[in-house]
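Key idea: predict the complex, not the pieces.
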Amino acid sequence: MSSSPVQRPVQSSSGGPAPLLEEVLSIAEELWPQALAESWDAVGLVTGRRDREVRRIHFAVDPVQAVVTEACTSGADLLITHHPLLLRGVHSVEAGHFKGELVHDLIEAGCALLSAHTNSDSAIGGVNDVLAGLLGVQDTEPLRPAEAGLADEGLGRIGTLTAPVTLADFASTVFSVLPAVAGGVRVAGDRDALVQRVALCGGAGDSLLGAAAQAQADVFLTADLRHHPASEAREAAAQQRPYLIDVSHFASEWLWLPAAAEALDRALRDRGYDVEVAVSGINTDPWDFVLTPGH
Amino acid sequence: MSSSPVQRPVQSSSGGPAPLLEEVLSIAEELWPQALAESWDAVGLVTGRRDREVRRIHFAVDPVQAVVTEACTSGADLLITHHPLLLRGVHSVEAGHFKGELVHDLIEAGCALLSAHTNSDSAIGGVNDVLAGLLGVQDTEPLRPAEAGLADEGLGRIGTLTAPVTLADFASTVFSVLPAVAGGVRVAGDRDALVQRVALCGGAGDSLLGAAAQAQADVFLTADLRHHPASEAREAAAQQRPYLIDVSHFASEWLWLPAAAEALDRALRDRGYDVEVAVSGINTDPWDFVLTPGH
Amino acid sequence: MSSSPVQRPVQSSSGGPAPLLEEVLSIAEELWPQALAESWDAVGLVTGRRDREVRRIHFAVDPVQAVVTEACTSGADLLITHHPLLLRGVHSVEAGHFKGELVHDLIEAGCALLSAHTNSDSAIGGVNDVLAGLLGVQDTEPLRPAEAGLADEGLGRIGTLTAPVTLADFASTVFSVLPAVAGGVRVAGDRDALVQRVALCGGAGDSLLGAAAQAQADVFLTADLRHHPASEAREAAAQQRPYLIDVSHFASEWLWLPAAAEALDRALRDRGYDVEVAVSGINTDPWDFVLTPGH
Amino acid sequence: MSSSPVQRPVQSSSGGPAPLLEEVLSIAEELWPQALAESWDAVGLVTGRRDREVRRIHFAVDPVQAVVTEACTSGADLLITHHPLLLRGVHSVEAGHFKGELVHDLIEAGCALLSAHTNSDSAIGGVNDVLAGLLGVQDTEPLRPAEAGLADEGLGRIGTLTAPVTLADFASTVFSVLPAVAGGVRVAGDRDALVQRVALCGGAGDSLLGAAAQAQADVFLTADLRHHPASEAREAAAQQRPYLIDVSHFASEWLWLPAAAEALDRALRDRGYDVEVAVSGINTDPWDFVLTPGH
Amino acid sequence: MSSSPVQRPVQSSSGGPAPLLEEVLSIAEELWPQALAESWDAVGLVTGRRDREVRRIHFAVDPVQAVVTEACTSGADLLITHHPLLLRGVHSVEAGHFKGELVHDLIEAGCALLSAHTNSDSAIGGVNDVLAGLLGVQDTEPLRPAEAGLADEGLGRIGTLTAPVTLADFASTVFSVLPAVAGGVRVAGDRDALVQRVALCGGAGDSLLGAAAQAQADVFLTADLRHHPASEAREAAAQQRPYLIDVSHFASEWLWLPAAAEALDRALRDRGYDVEVAVSGINTDPWDFVLTPGH
Amino acid sequence: MSSSPVQRPVQSSSGGPAPLLEEVLSIAEELWPQALAESWDAVGLVTGRRDREVRRIHFAVDPVQAVVTEACTSGADLLITHHPLLLRGVHSVEAGHFKGELVHDLIEAGCALLSAHTNSDSAIGGVNDVLAGLLGVQDTEPLRPAEAGLADEGLGRIGTLTAPVTLADFASTVFSVLPAVAGGVRVAGDRDALVQRVALCGGAGDSLLGAAAQAQADVFLTADLRHHPASEAREAAAQQRPYLIDVSHFASEWLWLPAAAEALDRALRDRGYDVEVAVSGINTDPWDFVLTPGH
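Result:
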């Protein structure tokens, strides 16, 4: 994790009234309905008092120490992260554990924490729709449709590029769209092969490897691909399609933050509220530097 | 739950230095080793920063709103309760849930929370030893010995009174020893029968009904006895021994607080620390009044 | 458990023919359909030969020794109890165990045993409807509707009193309606608060605490409330509504017996049969005496 | 099942006192300790009053209607069967189910029922030792030693014949030793091969097929061998040793009855009691007739 | 298992083209849809390359060594067996285990292996329909209808004979229809009773004993009936109907082979293919000889 | 996966006799005892006949198509891979699935397949010892000792460098020692921090993150680290030690192959056998190229 800033869009104050946390949560629910979350997930409000005013909202991917410090220092009343803080249930939030430390920091600073995780992956205009849009993938539909949602809701996306490009060129586009992280973009496949049908899943998407193959994708982009799932997928494809692109988990989800911030800001302004909305400038990809054959 | 004070021993300040929370925890571990806790239990520190000074410690049975408010208002740095706050794991401590509200109150007030539950039941000098001592039950041993503890550690106690008394008289002793609560003391058995061998378990002890019978107790005292376990135990005993005495869960455990406060205070003073130690005066038995045939 | 009689309605003989047990079972099935029983329950015929004549039927809450002796001594051919004898499956009915002893007593005396438990709780005109009727609770519906039953079938009831009364007055009504038992009626809440919307569940109803709150009850009456469920419910309600009334498990279900006896008797007479129907006069609440602050 | 008598040893009365059931059970426990029973088994007393006198004891393999009727008609006070009546736990013993019918018959006739099942299989001098003895198998040890028993206790036996015999001749010996049943004795293997090392397990022993192979048995005798276990064992052995002999489940266990009756009778007489002990003459093998190629 | 031939229908070559394995599988799927297989089953292709030509198909009940050797020696390209080779999942197919040995034999000889098990039991025209047809059982329907199949698909069959016959005569018909095996046909019931309503299940059908009784069968024919299921079924029927007929597992399923071979052959010829189809002449019933009272 | 050769040590033939596969397996068991494998693993022989001669042995990390083709083409009689082919049990090895295709290729070519996986990780001189040796990590002991092995056996290793080096320099050593793969070496931590205590685990070692921290490692090297485990470990360490180095799963295990080949070759020669032993030159890391910020 390095502290070099990535990007930091900020909506400045307009002087209107501030909403209560309860009201912000109600808008968040419209944007990223909790019913869309996977059954194993733990989304929603983690800390905070619902009757407090929210003047400043901070967005980030990971609820880690640097991010919480940044949010609290900046005077944020609400931190919205993609990843849950307490995915596994806890019996204690004492500060001797790093997660309890964050709970203390947040409550002491009066900053609420909200997680929008697989619900924001699945939602229309969520993580995967943003990713597809930035990569020029069109006519998308979910790789795994939501069980009880709209047709356009669900995990991952499959769609097409307006024209075929080589795998190398598509990888370059991916590289240029994503925020820069040490590990870069790894590709399995033939550089010169033309690809047009693209499957993608922000974050760790190895559970969708089979769905991408079944959807006859030319290439599947996701993060956190380990040796065995990647190797077995390549063998099952006889080293042919779908090719694989493995990107930074953080980077693939960070792209959603500006869009999410803007959507929330717009909804608040529509209701006459004035809230300052910021996106964290901290790179929370865990890797600081990389040595590759090309260096 | 009523707010009429029950008892409130307070150790006054002596001017010595204050220990860090970490140091208080270390003493608590000696008094009530966490290894004695049942596998399903969740004991230990729940909120708080280990590097903070502790000037004032507050003891109570239940970590409920009135108790937490009392502790925070009184300026306590540490609240020690018998019952755990987060027995079931949680994914959120937001203040919209009554347990999250308490977490916020405690952290905002800088008051740590420590639970000593089945470890303090089982420990030497713990809940059950205090109860036995106050009732004059001697030569005690555990009803269910600890699996990996000393011979005197374990759940419940079985021992003898110095002389036989009628069941009615023993019940009167129980009634006079316990803090007054609405529900009183319920007895199943023959008022005039003489009892001398006494089994007891502070709190809900129905899992020890069989052990009490096997230990040939004349009477078994515990709390929270429901119809079916009580009825089946009475039938299995053919309405004979062991007779049953059902008391308030809160009352049976409250008795431990002054003893625990004193033991902790003594250990702190032995190390040269000066800490004010108080016992909550709030009755957290949930029942406010009772109508019985005698009224 | 004391043997002081509670009440004992008896239908005298009219000289008509006696039905076979099989025929009585068929009527019981109409009154308390076994399909309404909870999945964990064990209702239905426990002992007896279906081709035997039934001249005398005895009703009671608990299949305990005193009740079985009473039924057999009185010459009953069928004992109908609310509680099952063999809720947990058995591999033996030898008389060395108190339940096997009852099986021997019943079979030797030619007395069949039938249990109508959660099916009679859930049924229209069953335990909860009788309780609601005696307390003046009107326009009732189930707290937890039966999964595959009629709209009026299910566990617990929620309804309204014709006019608001203080909690203390409602508790007095409860006390006067229930058969007298040692433990009386325990109340959590403000004596002077007015209540009108009443939730209730005869027997142990702590699993319905959440449903009572969600149904916006002013007060929830049930039995066997232990410290933790009661305390957590009071905290979740911030010591406000729903208030709680805890009564004797036995007493809350005994009320059903006369109504059940009458319903069965009427149905038998409608078919031209002459059967003597009695209700047990034995108090099988396990508690014999109580000491309360007021005494 | 046919009612043609198989054998019926009877010990006649000598005029001594009769033991209580409790005393007979105590002797049975010495002969066939319940601790030797498999964890899934349900052995011990099923019906009966422990304080009743036992003048007549009846032994049989199966607690079925014909056997129970025979025992009750003959005035038996105790029926001892190899197979348990209530192997699966029951919630009812009403007479409409065939097992409840037996419970009623037994209790009405004052006849207790005791099961000695896998404990008598495993015990020294039990089912398998009797079977080995009658077949001339010597120097036996258990195929699966008891986990917490003596070295000679456990399931199945492996031992040697004094001299090699052909498989056909060994099968003839088996046939002549067993009580005649319709299905006879089935053999898988080469008639003319010589066998000397014999594994055996009375009743259904397919779980010991692997143990018999590992113990390098020439032949394994047991009952209830189905197609797949038998076929797989023959394939694993490449159609060589161990050969298999499949006999009647009933027949293989019936052999134990006279020995068990005699052992119990002797022990009772040693204590000065006079009890009439009989072995049932009813063949409870379910098969009545067979059509084979040879007929 | 003996190698005396049972029957061996062979379709001779006509000179047409050979299908690919893929095409044969597609026809097999129409005849015995895999969706009809039980959830615990493992049907379908076990070894083989789908792009190989199939000139010769061999049918057998069991994929055992003698059968695989016969198929490979005869030059078969595909062996179709009723029983699966790898019902339990394997982590190795090394030849040191008898199943791995078969995998090596098959692959080395270029012979594919296909299993049609519970799908062929359940299918129209499958194992049970063939059995019913040969026994003259008419107007059949499944004993346990397929969950998601046609009305005539499912496990077992129940139907009627054109006229009542004695149980002994029906058993003789069974005996004469089945291929001769050592163990013959075992019958439980009254030889002279008239039977007309017949339930049957090829292979091990004890899970359908209850369904046969509920369908009011006069007699239930199946294989692999062990002592306890048979005995309990006879007791539940009070030794009356349904009577039981226990046959060889192998024999009851072998009957399907010629019909299956013919159906597949016809379907192949309809598509213009020329494939030689044979049925194995090996008796894979594990029993070689039997000793019965009648010998 | 690219086919550019990495390294290929070959032992040439000396004219001695060839061992049987059985004998090679016996030596492999001494080098990498199967008892050291994790309970979830599937090590040992996967295909092959134990009585065949082995003239040529081929080593590789992954049993993938390119590797199997290389082994079969080169005339290998035995392929030894680190990864199991059938880690999850299979019910079919038909060639339509890529794993079944490999089974067919191997058996048709007469090439056996042996997997030495977590047993070779844990063994003395195994994967982790080789890795430690090449990196100059000394005085090693296991991170998680084997439950029933020698003190030096177990998963992962912890040891020390002869002198402290900067994290950047240590990463350079790692990079230079590993075979070149596209993804290179990723590092989380301060480039200039000095490290000396090194924990490592070839392959995916995230389950040892806690053990590495508890062993007070300065740096932990392993493969397949995903975002969440890496991020949580960095947070738990407050971004301090242990630093993390994430390498190619393939590369970290490939290093073992030459050492394993040499150890096996030496053991075979010690027994007088002449076997040609080769190490695969195929890079089976799934990634073909990478785009990083530095490019």
